[in-house]
Amino acid sequence: MQLLICSGYHSADLTYDFLQSLLRVITPERLWVMPIWAAPGTLPWLLNSPQAPRRDRLLQVIAFSAGVVAAYPMLMTWTKMGGSSRLIAIDGWGMPLLGDLEIYRMSHDHWTHRTTYFPAAIESQGYFYSDPAVEHLTLWQSPDSTTGMGAINARSQPMTALEFICSVLSLD
Asked: Which domains does the chain have, with CATH numbers?
């Protein structure tokens, strides 16, 4: 599995905590972490570096908050250049995510889920929202202890945010 993490504007400690939770349950073959401040240089790296993901393999991306805004156009270009991708957009705050990408959305509460959902729920591959609601940064920092409702291919059920992420990453 090729996995790229695109964080938002927050303390690096929160992304460290997220990675600790994630890496307890998955082992990607290749893992990259793109802090939001490095976003302007990521597209040239993605398209030209020998250390970049391979275009002949699925690139899975988990993006949080402002990281969604940075990841989306990068993935649109990646797709136009022949790559395939899957995006888990965590609290993208209404970023309209349309196009030929496989997109899964996550929200820190039901209100955000309902008011920032593009495309419509029936058009998406899956979603998760926290229930009970949690703070925006908590969803990123503690996906293993954040509970809610998740759905992949319209089957909604209770789960943790981490269980949702792992379910999406294991799709093939």
From this structure: 2-170 (3.40.50)
